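Support case: flavin-adenine dinucleotide complex. Customer-provided input:
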Amino acid sequence: HHYRWALFDRKPLDRWSDERVVLLGDAAHPMLPFMAQGAVQAIEDSYVLARLLSDADDIAVALESYFQTRIARVTRVQAAARVNMELFHHRRPQSPVWLAGKIAPTVVERQLDWLYGHDVTGS
Ligand SMILES: Cc1cc2nc3c(=O)[nH]c(=O)nc-3n(C[C@H](O)[C@H](O)[C@H](O)COP(=O)(O)OP(=O)(O)OC[C@H]3O[C@@H](n4cnc5c(N)ncnc54)[C@H](O)[C@@H]3O)c2cc1C
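Agent response - structure generated as follows:
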């Protein structure tokens, strides 16, 4: 059916560069769409990569540093998107998350401070 298509993510890679070829965005860390973060993380990657390359004496060191700076965060977003896939497709509409959002919305919002409170210019 041409109105349907598959959704894919991929396990975290153990490197994003090979000599002077480097990946960012979906090529480095494809994620499921349930956090709406694929483009956001690609933009964050590009900021970090550009800053490290512009300051670099050694390209290889800069590319490794880029990977080390970004991998934990994008892996966490990938994992959160997977969890949301389960939650969003829960059959019961009044799931624990829905209920918590009604009773204590700020508690639920604070759980995403690690994502939305992150300042990539400081990383
Ligand atoms: C329906 C939908 C909704 C989305 N909503 C959101 C959202 O709300 N928030 C969010 O943050 N993200 C969202 N995303 C995810 C976001 O679009 C992607 O994560 C983002 O576009 C990834 O950027 P990228 O530059 O890594 O890859 P892409 O945007 O895929 O860019 C790769 C480019 O490379 C080109 N290309 C491929 N092969 C070659 C080749 N051999 N030679 C030359 N060029 C080539 C492609 O044509 C493409 O233009 C959404 C995605 C979809 C599909």
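The chain has a mean pLDDT of 90.

Case will auto-close in a few days if no follow-up is received.
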